[in-house]
Amino acid sequence: MVVFISDLHISDKTTGVQHLEIDAFEEALGNIARQAKNAGSKEITFVFLGDIFDLVRTTFWVQKPLIERPWGLPVNATPAQIAAVQTNAVALIDEIIEKNDKIFKMWGKPLPRKYHLPEKQTRIYIPGNHDRICNEFPALRERVIESLGLNIGRETQLDPHVPFDYYFHSSLYKVFARHGQEWDNYNFERVADWSQSGYIIPPPEHYLEIPIGEVIAAEVASLLPTAVCQNLKGKIDDDDLKIIIEHMKTIDDVRPMAAILPWLIDSLLTQTAMRQHRSIVVDALANAVRTVISAFDTLPFTQAWMEKHDSFAPLDYVDRLQLAILALKNLDITRVNRILQMAESRPAHAVEAILRIMPCIDDALRNDNYATMASKDLKRIESDPQFAKTLYMLYGHTHRAEQVPIDTPKDSSCQVYLNTGTWRPLYRQAVSQIGFMRWKNLTFTIFYNAEDDPKIKFQRPDPTFETWTGSLLDPLNHNPNDLTLPC
Fold it and tell me: β-strand 426-429 against 402-407: which pairing, if any?
């Protein structure tokens, strides 16, 4: 059997602790073991399908000189400059591993017999966009191999000087999997190149090009809580400030991403500490947004990216980002306060007002089109004999677990798109666009074939799958005594 897990986003915790801890892994492994026993599986392969480590959502990089950050390197960087970035990246992943030692001590060695998993085990790692840099330097690959126990169960040991593959394929299980950033213009630099070219696997060097989404996460989302803290420090009680900042650290968990501004408005109406100090918080938030966005907009990398990707097409993805930057740099505090007043009595009208502030609402940010992309992927790979009989297309990246039938012909096997979801908490916007709920998520996907489970061959000739998703309502209640301020 093959088990897929993605988007754990295990971090250095400097922007909050959003990933699940060791108890979640132990519970998941117990469930996986039960499925393996029921199927009679003699071996198991774990596939870590990207964004296992998060080397982007951290305050680590902004504490380094710009030239020592991945996106701060000049075009003609010297070996010494590249080495400095590598040194920093190694220090960061070491920090992540150390701060999450229980998780990596578990995965870094054979899993204990107490989980009752099949004796024969293999582990495979595929980089995503938040752990993109792990495939850039041998020293980071070495850390990944050791911390995830990738050499366990292998006759031939992995060489850290050999890059990891960016996809997983099995003709036995008729599955093809990749992280999924390949369809995201903000998180993969060559979407147009590879999607229009017809080739199935983008060249490895394309994955190493730094996408703008990586810079947004590191230079904007990761910095915003600290900037708000600096603007509020001394103006309100420290306990209230800690609660506000801890809430701000979860901004990266809002889905769809285009709902971030409505989420902030909702927070100012519903979060006790933010509501009690609303006028001060709005002022601090607006100033923080303007400061962080302006700094991001003036980065040489940002300017070069805009120039490189802008096209003559009206309102392309570059134009939408530029509109977002413009709107946020000129965020009108008076207008925000008017919306807050309106939201208390006329929520639906407030939603419309928010959308007028943010003309950059982008369908691509909503991640609604991945089933369509999977359908295109399946059609493309049918032309290659190596992948011709693939039935299942797997992605991660969107943080939304899905199972979507792509094609169900009467005379042949069904094709299905699956998404492996995430293990992070998420804020989900209501369909009414009024209000949010937060819950923790845990998803894994299992594939079986006839060798795993002899009963399958009497039911259907093809491999089968199961997806398991758990959700737990998580209202994010914090004790100020357990929190620290980032400023």
Answer: unpaired
